[in-house]
Amino acid sequence: TFDARYLFRFTENAMVEEATKYLEKTEIEGFGGNLILYKRPDLDAVTWHYRAKIEGMKGYVRRSTKETNFELAKRKAEQEFIENTGKFKNNVEVNITYVRTAIQRYLKHISEKKYYIDNSQRFRYVKNTWYRYMHGYFGDMKVSEITEAELEGYWHYRRDYYIKGASKELMASNKNRVNAKSKTSRNIKVRFSYGTARAEASVINQFFAWCYDSRVGLTSKVLKTSAKDAFESVDVNKKNRRPHFDEKDWRIVRQNLKNYAECKGRFEVKYDREFVNKSRFMMRTFILFLGSTGMRLGEAKQIRWKDIRFDKKQDAIIINVDESTSKVRRGRDVVAHSTWIGSQLDEWKEMSDFTKDSDLVFYAVKENNPDTQNVCDVSVSFKNLLKEIGKLENERGKVRTLYSLRHTYATLRLEAGVEVYNLAKNMGTSVQQIEWHYGHVNTKKIVGDLTKGGSLKDTQKAKDIELAAEMITHLRDGTLDEKAVASVLKNIAINK
Q1: Nearest 5°: phi and psi at 39?
Q2: Paired residues of 310 in beta bridges
Q3: DSSP 8-state assignment for residue 144
Q4: Lateral strand order in the sheet of 332-335
Q5: Closest CA to 303 of 311, 370, 317
Q6: Inter-residue contact 76 to 49 (CB < 8 Å)
Q7: How open is the CA angle 327-333-335, to the nearest 5 degrees?
Q8: 496 has pLDDT over 70
Q9: How far is CA 397 from the centre of its chain?
Q10: How much is the pTM?
Q11: For position 301, what pLDDT does the model report?
Q12: Separation CA 237–CA 93 (nearest Å)
């Protein structure tokens, strides 16, 4: 049976072929008519191009050989035909794809995933971070030709970004703040932190992992970077010391949170008292919830009422973290530090406008759509509260944020003697990460454990133990190497 569609395609191709003005055109022998060299005036009258038809692949591969000599062009066309045939058989994309094109496909891909649909804030972060920082560096690169050296070069580009790079002017004037009181972007840090580098490395690695995926096939190898590539090793150790609240400061924060929620003293307001009370009470509950559970910020924001239960047998509040909202894609049960957070949550539930099992516990609403929940964001309000009570920075001058509550939880639990394994399991991380980030916390505990059962105060032995514990801390922090610590410990033994 004759197919009219075939006739149309045949006629259309013949017309296109006839309309194409070739200066020269040669079919390369040995490739069954699938490889042709040609010159065209609309491309480059003196340079040879080739058109290749790879078996099983739709369309043609068209490339410039960048050669004016026929024999050199022929050799290159033959070589690339063989290479491209191999790529196609191994599910690697043959046609050149630039990063600027690939990132659009990637963002569309993840925007349809449940995790990013439920975490729209995370999707905005990935998209905005990419176009603010990475796009200027990677955008015009060919995905398949990026090397490890070019990947590492990103950190050199990133370090200069606000100094002599693309956004030097942004520090002085931000076009997005046209109607704002301040035109400058003082919240931007010229020197990014190790935590920022880790977050950006994650965005980059996830994109290139997608590029390598067999269904995408843009690269033939896994490309991966690390935040450590952005810093000297000693800086990495320093930057891993997370700002937190010690027991005294955390008590001050809790006391002020109560006054803040009740609009008392310095936190008094004279407008829309009912709305302010409700939003402030939710913020207080959210902060206490973070401090009591040590959950990641993104996990806590996605908690729903059905995820919280009271275990009467164990007299404990247990929160279920779904794998879809977990950073490490693993679900777990989180045990709250104490049951008092349960009564705080009950009180908040009585005030909340959303109390169904499927509703978010902590939320925000838009004025034009008050019946729909959005993910809450109290980071600015918390920052302003800390400024007001003089606790925004720790003793080292590092700024505290909502994420400092996770570090506060870990620090206080370790100081209270909680086993590292149990703590890591509850926080959804590894023992190695706990040791890496919080190893310095154990100095006092080591001294306490080693001096149990005897009154060693003011004795040389007690001083030796304290000094040994201090050396362990320096070793973990990276401020002293193994050789230096061993030398000090040897001196302790010699001078006993």
Answers
A1: -125, 140
A2: 317
A3: G
A4: 308-311, 316-321, 332-335
A5: 317
A6: no
A7: 115
A8: no
A9: 24
A10: 0.56
A11: 93
A12: 40
* Under 8 Å between Cβ of 47 and 66: yes
Q: Is 30 exposed, middle or buried (0-12, 13-18, 19+ CB in 10 A)?
A: exposed
Strand order in the sheet with 35-40: 24-27, 35-40, 44-52, 61-67
Complete DSSP assignment for 86-103: HHHHTT---S--BHHHHH
Are 18 and 37 in contact, with CB atoms under 8 Å apart?
no
Q: Dig out the tokens for 282 from the structure.
A: 């939710």
Contact 415, 441 (CB under 8 A): yes
- Return contacts of 377-382, CB within 8 angstroms, 24+ apart: 377/121, 378/282, 378/283, 378/286, 378/287, 378/402, 381/283, 382/283, 382/287
Query: How does pLDDT run across 390-436, given as a tens digit for each residue?
Result: 999 998 888 999 999 999 999 999 888 888 889 999 999 888 788 77
Burial class (CB in 10 A: 0-12, 13-18, 19+), 453: exposed
Q: Residue 5: pLDDT above 50?
A: no
Q: How far apart, in Å, are the Cα atoms of 441 and each of 65, 246, 254, 437, 477?
A: 62, 11, 22, 9, 11
Helix intervals (H) in 392-439: 404-415, 420-427, 431-438
Q: What is the pLDDT of residue 181?
A: 53
